[in-house]
Amino acid sequence: MNNKLIFAALCAFFTFCNSESAKQPGNQPDTTTEAVPVQNAQTSAPPVAGNLTLIAPKLSAASGETICLDITVAGFQQLLSMQYSLRWDKNVLEFKELKNFQLPSMDGNNFGVNNAQDGLLTALWIENSLKGITVADGASIYQVCYKVKGKPGQFSSINFVDKPTPFEAVNTKDEILGIKGIDGKVTVK
Fold this sequence. Notes:
The protein has one helix at 3-13; strands at residues 48-55, 58-61, 66-74, 79-87, 93-99, 111-112, 120-126, 140-148, 155-161, 168-171, 176-182, 184-188. It is mainly beta. It has one domain (47-188): Immunoglobulin-like (Sandwich). A hairpin with a 7-residue loop joins strand 6 (111-112) and strand 7. It starts with a helix and ends with a strand.
């Protein structure tokens, strides 16, 4: 996998790329260049026809209840990396935790939770062996848990969004895939 692509993905997830000390990885010290934030970067190729689909469920829950939503996938074929953001209504759902990680090398460190109190979570996963991972359609890759705090009749969509972390998935052929989100919904009963 291209080191520039990996570094761009890391820049999208972490905020260190704007600092003077952030340098692009390289083997020769005198040929390193300063990193550019991924928001300003252009990909070298448009997404290929196949998409990775991320799916959040639709369900109802009582106010005060803690719920854990399975984030499931389709089209997860020989992937090396993926990144995206997840958004919800902070007035209806309060973020509690992430758990039940099902991808190799995935844990809580793959998620940016600094803005979770505002209803925003960022995600970046890289398959460290660079061999590619395939996951069956409909399989859960992790759970996101919330405390329901809305009033009966209120709801929150669970949206896969491309800001602040742009949608991107890369397979073992170094093809950039699009990400399609099938949004979920939690209705307060």
